[in-house]
Specification:
By secondary structure, this protein is an alpha+beta fold. The chain is built from 2 helices and 5 strands, in the order H-E-E-E-E-E-H. The longest helix is centred in the N-terminal third of the chain and has 18 residues, at 7-24.
Length: 108
């Protein structure tokens, strides 16, 4: 397993999240925050001062190929996005698609 994500890739992801927040949440009280730990990027939504885990991306060593997992609140664990969940239709391999899937799953 890859131990960490290169700094330049982290910066690209932060920019993608910033642009997504500006486009999707310009008039809403929601926004995505990310935390990086080793090969994982954790996506959490901030709403009314609370951070809710939504999904995580796993770096595979190739910045164009990521594995995404959705947070399952019932179990408190991340599960494969191959499982069926409400926002699955938005998954297209992109960070934008994964973030849309997370919002559909938790806030639709």
């Amino acid at each position: 397993m890859i131990n960490s994500i290169p700094q330049d890739i982290k910066l690209k992801i932060k920019d993608i999240v910033k642009q997504f927040n500006e486009k999707q949440f310009s008039e809403k009280k929601l926004n995505y925050n990310i935390e990086v730990e080793g090969p994982y990027i954790y996506f959490k939504v901030a709403y009314d001062g609370q951070l809710t885990p939504i999904l995580r991306a796993i770096y595979t060593g190739d910045e164009k190929t990521w594995k995404f997992e959705i947070f399952q609140s019932a179990s408190g664990k991340y599960v494969s996005t191959e499982e069926d969940f409400p926002g699955r239709k938005y998954l297209d391999g992109s960070f934008e698609g994964a973030m849309k899937a997370g919002i559909e799953t938790y806030y639709a």
